Amino acid sequence: LDLLSDARFWSDLLTTVILVGCSVALQLVIGLALALALYAAARGVRLISLLNFLPNVVTPVVGAIFLKWLFIGRFGLIDSTLISFDVFPPDWLGDPVWAKVTLILADTWKFMPFLMLVLYAGLQAFDTQLLEAAQIDGANGWQRLRYVILPMMKPLILFVVAIRAMDAFRFFDLVYVITNGGPGTATETITLYTYQIGFRMLEVGKASADIRGDLPWP
Fold first, then answer.
1. Cα dihedral 192/195/201/203 (nearest 10)
2. Which stretch of DSSP H or E encloses residue 18?
């Protein structure tokens, strides 16, 4: 009851839903686009797949430190590069909106390769005769994608989105290292809030109830 009456809990829950929804949607779009590009490529597929999968191999904390070095204000690589071209970048980690955008981009960079490889594997098992029949019937590339490929890939797309969404709700490593929930509590997720009340405020009972709320099932 104490947890459910806590405004910070509901604010963090909304933040988590926004981060998860935006990052998973972006990962699906980019991952599907890259999977289709690899499926259509004739050469270098294995090398490109390996290079794209490298971010997924990197430890989340190490990847988060690298990304924080990129986005940190004034002295970060992105800011330094843009300022050298007389372009003044936003405060990536100090502005509430841009901090959320930064975390969405960071999560996409880290976990998008998983979606890409699973979708690419699904395309490999695709019946090419359906595409050939659609092409003979005069369907262009967009029509083949919309009416042939996506309907056949729908079960696999729903599967990877569900798996990725459940994993993304445990959003902790990247948030803790890059923003630590800041500025203020603008990017504080449910898992980070659980850590705060459990290990910083030592409210073990409340943290235990919050952990139960983090699970992706009732």
1. 120
2. helix 7-40
Q: Tokens for 2? A: 């104490």
Q: What is the pLDDT of residues 155-177, one digit of tens each?
A: 999 999 999 999 888 888 899 99
Rounded CA separation 156/23 (Å): 18
How many helical (H) and strand (E) elements, i.e. helices and strands, does the chain have?
11, 0
Nearest alpha carbon to residue 58 among 8, 111, 13: 111
Pick from 112, 125, 133: which is nearest to 153 by CA?
Answer: 125
Task: Please give the Cα distance from 30 to 119 (Å, whole number).
Answer: 11
Count CB atoms within 10 A of the CB of residue 205: 11
* Residues ≥6 apart with Cβ < 8 Å to 157: 28, 32, 119, 150
Residue 137's alpha-carbon distances to 7, 133, 150, in angstroms, are 57, 6, 18
Its pTM stands at: 0.87
